[in-house]
Every structure is written in structure tokens, then in C-alpha cells.
Write a structure and sequence with these properties.
The protein is α+β, with helices and mostly antiparallel strands. The chain has one domain: Transposase IS200-like (Alpha-Beta Plaits, 2-Layer Sandwich), CATH 3.30.70.1290. 22% of the residues lie in helices and 18% in strands. The chain has four helices and seven strands; from the N terminus they run E-E-E-H-E-E-H-E-H-H-E. The strands form two sheets. It has a five-stranded antiparallel beta sheet, sandwiched between helices. A two-stranded antiparallel ribbon has the order 1-2. A hairpin with a 5-residue loop joins strand 1 and strand 2. The longest helix is centred in the middle third of the chain and has 21 residues. The chain is globular and about 45 Å long. The N terminus is likely disordered.
């Protein structure tokens, strides 16, 4: 079993320190501190929109001495409402805790799409490679779970995620906390809950912490 404390270096001398410990503000958490993967600091309005593209761009331009936290959005295929349930939530959290080429911080599941913040841990793997890997692992976990349940299985397997995702690397001057609040307000804007704390399908896998240049 891997050590709970692991350090990986990349170009520029920055390193990743993975330190697992339990915290109490989420039902699903495996915190981790990330050296030199950071946050910008500027106040953005609550209604600040996400960047919009017709098609997702490829790759993430990694800056060794700057913030490399990425906001990722992925839809289900045909926008089927498959994500906002306890089984999917648990399987995704477990999958992300194991697929550590990129590390997932805060995340939120909407019925037909998800938002997550992530940071690179192993630069041999592009974000697209990592996304394809955890999608595949998630599907396998779903199938294994369905195979252990008496029919009819409560987890339908005919749906899938869209082939790619939309991602945006937070730049200097952008605030992680503001964007995370905006993400958490999605269920409120959609009328699914009245308060952001009432939405149960969110959590944190690793802590992504800026430790300075």
C-alpha cells in the first residue's frame, strides 16, 4: 500500500505533497495539501459566468511557478439526469480518490453534469488521459456493484458521460473560493434546494492549497 505521504517533483522544482487526513465538513473527504498548486485572489461577483466554448479545448498549459488548479465541467451524454444520487456519488468519490494522476478537490454533482476542481500530480498524464481513465474506472465500478445486487439492479448502466469535458485553469487574480461558491449555487439557481448547504451531492477528495511561490 502506498505511503500516505508522497512527494512528486516537476519542472521548475515545485512538488506535490499528498497528505491524507480526515476533516469534518463533508461526508466524503480525503484531504491532501498540494505545494505550488494555488489560488488567485480577487473578488469576483457571485454571478460571474463560467467561460463558454462551443467545443472543449485540448490540454492544460501547466505553469510550474503559478496556479495550476483547473475547473472541470462534464455532462452526461444527452444530458441524462443520472448523477445526483447516493450510489453514483459514492462511486465517483471512490474513483477520484484512486485516480491520482490529477487530484480532485471540491466537486459538485448536478443531475446531468458535474463540476470539479483538480490539479496535476503526475505530468506524464494529460487531463484528457486522466478524464478517460476515471470515466472507465467509474463504469467498471458501477457494473461490479450492479452485479452484486438482486435484479432489477437499481443502477442503470445504459448511460455514459460525454466524450470530453470543458476545463479552465484558474489564472492569477481568480479566486478559488468565489468560483466554488458559484458552483455550489447551481442547485439553488435550478430550484432544487433553497440553500447551498441543503444540496447533498458534493464533497472534497483532496485539499488543494496554495503554499506560495
Amino acid at each position: 500500500m502506498a505511503s500516505p505521504h508522497q512527494s512528486r517533483a516537476f519542472s521548475g522544482g515545485a512538488s506535490v505533497l499528498a497528505s491524507r487526513a480526515q476533516r469534518g465538513n463533508s461526508n466524503f473527504q480525503t484531504p491532501c495539501s498540494i505545494d505550488n498548486f494555488g489560488y488567485g485572489y480577487v473578488n469576483l461577483p457571485r454571478n460571474h459566468p463560467f467561460p463558454q466554448r462551443q467545443n472543449p479545448s485540448s490540454g492544460v498549459h501547466i505553469q510550474p511557478d503559478q496556479s495550476n488548479i483547473v475547473l472541470l465541467t462534464i455532462n452526461t451524454e444527452k444530458r441524462e439526469p443520472r448523477l445526483a444520487n447516493e450510489s453514483t456519488h459514492q462511486i465517483l468519490h471512490q474513483t477520484w480518490s484512486e485516480a491520482t494522476a490529477w487530484l480532485v478537490g471540491d466537486y459538485l454533482l448536478m443531475p446531468d453534469h458535474l463540476h470539479l476542481f483538480c490539479a496535476p500530480r503526475d505530468l506524464q498524464f494529460t487531463i484528457e488521459t486522466w478524464i478517460a481513465y476515471w470515466k472507465r474506472e467509474f463504469t467498471l465500478k458501477q457494473k461490479r456493484l450492479a452485479g452484486t445486487l438482486a435484479p432489477p439492479a437499481p443502477i442503470p448502466l445504459e448511460w455514459r458521460f460525454q466524450s470530453r469535458g470543458w476545463h479552465h485553469r484558474l489564472r492569477d487574480g481568480e479566486n478559488y473560493s468565489e468560483k466554488w461558491i458559484y458552483v455550489q449555487e447551481n442547485p439553488v439557481r435550478k430550484g432544487l434546494v433553497k440553500r447551498i448547504e441543503d444540496w447533498p451531492f458534493k464533497g472534497r477528495v483532496f485539499d488543494l492549497i496554495w503554499s506560495g511561490k
